[in-house]
Structure formats: C-alpha cells, structure tokens
C-alpha cells in the first residue's frame, strides 16, 4: 500500500493524493509511505523517485544496521522497530529531503500509523508547515523509540517478580528464567544501542535537522535512548547477580547433600566392617559359638553409631 500526505501552499494538509501529482508543484512538501509494498510498488523507488541503487538495495535486503547515508539531494536512514511479542527487529527506511519524506517498511507497523496520525493532527503548527519532512522524521523516530519502553518495562517487571518469588522455585527453573531474560535483553540491546549511536549522529548532523530545526527535539529522543541503554545494562547486571546467587545457592545445597551423605557413609563404615568380619564364617571364630555373641555385637554396633552421631553433632556437622 502507498499512501501520500501533502501540505499545500495555503497550509492545508491533503491525503489520498495520487503519486503522479506530488511533482506538479502544488505542494510545499509531501510524505509518501510504502507499507507492505508489492514488487510493482517497490520498483517505484527507482523508476519514479530515482533513488540510488545502493539505497534501494538496502531497503530490499533486511536487516541492515541503523545508519545514515548522505546522497546528493537526500539522506537515507535505516531505523529499527520492535515487535513487542517476539522482540524481532523490523526495518524502517526513510528517504529524507527538503521537500519530501519517503518511508518504506515491509510490515504494517502501528508506530508508522501513529506517526501518520500525529502529523495530521499537528498540521496547523508552524514547524510542520515549514519543515514538514524533518518534523515527520522526528515524529517517526520518536514513535519507534516510544515503543521500546514497554518492552523494557515488561522485562523489569519480570525481574522484580523473579527476585521476590525466586526462593519458592527450583534452581533449575530459576536459571532457565534468568537465561531467558538475558537473551531477551540481548535482543533489545542489539536494537537500542545502534539506534542510540544513530541518533547521536543525527543530533550532530545539520543535514538531517534542517536549517532551523531545534536540536532539542532530537536531543530528547537521544536522552530516551540513553535511558533505555542504561536500563538494559542495569537489568543485565541484575540478571548476572541473580545467576551468581542461584549458582551459589545450588552449590550450597549440593554441599549440604554431600555432607549428609558423607556423615551417613562414615557412620556405616565401622558397622560394615564388623558385619564383614563376622560374616566370613571361619570355623575357628570363638564368638560364633558364644551364646550372647549376637546380642553383644548388635549392642556394640548401636553404641558405636550413637557415639559417632554424638561426636559429629558436637563438631557441628549437622548444622
């Protein structure tokens, strides 16, 4: 689908414009959005807009790292959106010039719809009148970044719940949950950190901001990305601490089990020795013919076991 928005010379926003009319000079600026384009619609990037083949190739071969390329009459931006369910990355490409913005994405994105609606609602603002493509670019990037926050907040909530209820779960289950969280945090980091670096470059680029575009708008997005990066690093450190705590807890449990088994084995070792001696059935063993020999040996074994248990208890082995 291709949708077109344009600002007329009398400061009116029109939508549903045929693509052929955007070059007639009737509009101060236009925004053309390619959403889930067909192969025929994709060919318009080269045949109608005459974009550079390398930029078109970047649109077709996903996923590119977020970046900013300068061409003769426009700038080409690669941005990343996030699927909230799977944290999969969705590429968004922007062709930005003084008189137009062309956005291209292979999937229908809620963020792009929100940015489109915001531009329509803010069409009366002077910034939108005079710097429409740059304003639209800011709104698109801001909408993409705003969708990062819920993904990070969900993980933080799961971390808090895991920290509060972890003592009631098995160590194996807890470790699986921790590694799952670390994997999801890594996916977020691979998206947010390159976007942060891209925003730093945009913030210091006069080409993208336009001659009069305030730096504060792009600085605000950059601050959001810095905050997200710090949150992710903090969450990764927390998962590392949880992992180390669970490993230590598991080691302590194993040490306790081994200690218990060692005590039991040590107690039964002399009993096994006595039973083994009197189980050899030699003929010349005086105790075998003694009337009270069996009860005496049992008493010795019980007494020896009790003495060893008492001795281990005094040494703190059962604590």
UniProtKB/TrEMBL annotation:
Q: What transmembrane ranges does the database entry give?
A: 261-280, 292-312
Among InterPro entries, the record links this protein to: CorA_cytoplasmic_dom (IPR045861), CorA_TM1_TM2 (IPR045863), Mg/Co-transport_prot_CorA (IPR004488), MgTranspt_CorA/ZnTranspt_ZntB (IPR002523)
The topology of this chain with respect to the membrane is:
Multi-pass membrane protein
State what this protein does: Mediates influx of magnesium ions.
Domain of life per record: Bacteria
Q: Per the annotation, which location comes first and is thus the protein's main one? A: membrane
| Similarity field | Belongs to the CorA metal ion transporter (MIT) (TC 1.A.35) family.
How is this protein named in the record?
Magnesium transport protein CorA
Gene name of this polypeptide: corA
Q: Which CDD domains match?
A: TmCorA-like_u2
Name where it's found.
Cell membrane; Membrane
The UniProt keyword set, sorted, is: Cell membrane, Ion transport, Magnesium, Membrane, Transmembrane, Transmembrane helix, Transport
């Amino acid at each position: 689908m291709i949708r077109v928005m344009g600002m007329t010379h009398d400061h009116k926003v029109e939508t549903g414009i045929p693509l052929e009319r955007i070059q007639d000079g009737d509009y101060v600026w236009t925004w053309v959005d390619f959403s889930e384009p067909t192969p025929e619609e994709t060919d318009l990037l080269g045949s109608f807009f005459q974009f550079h083949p390398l930029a078109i190739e970047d649109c077709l071969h996903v996923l590119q790292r977020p970046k900013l390329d300068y061409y003769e009459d426009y700038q080409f931006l690669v941005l990343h959106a996030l699927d909230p369910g799977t944290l999969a990355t969705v590429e968004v490409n922007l062709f930005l010039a003084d008189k137009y913005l062309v956005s291209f994405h292979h999937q229908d994105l809620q963020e792009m719809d929100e940015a489109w609606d915001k531009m329509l609602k803010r069409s009366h603002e002077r910034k939108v009148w005079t710097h429409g493509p740059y304003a639209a670019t800011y709104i698109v990037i801001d909408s993409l970044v705003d969708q990062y926050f819920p993904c990070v907040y969900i993980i933080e909530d799961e971390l808090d719940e895991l920290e509060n209820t972890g003592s009631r779960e098995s160590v194996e289950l807890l470790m699986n949950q921790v590694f799952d969280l670390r994997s999801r945090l890594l996916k977020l980091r691979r998206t947010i950190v390159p976007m942060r670096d891209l925003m730093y470059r945009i913030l210091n680029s006069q080409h993208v901001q336009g001659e009069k575009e305030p730096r504060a708008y792009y600085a605000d997005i950059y601050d959001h990305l810095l905050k997200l990066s710090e949150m992710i690093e903090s969450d990764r450190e927390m998962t590392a601490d949880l992992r180390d705590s669970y490993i230590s807890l598991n080691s302590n449990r194993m040490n306790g089990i081994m200690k218990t088994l060692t005590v039991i084995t040590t107690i039964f070792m002399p009993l096994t020795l006595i039973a083994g001696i009197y189980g050899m059935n030699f003929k010349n063993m005086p105790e075998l013919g003694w009337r009270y020999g069996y009860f005496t040996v049992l008493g010795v074994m019980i007494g020896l076991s009790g003495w060893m248990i008492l001795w281990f208890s005094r040494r703190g082995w059962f604590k």
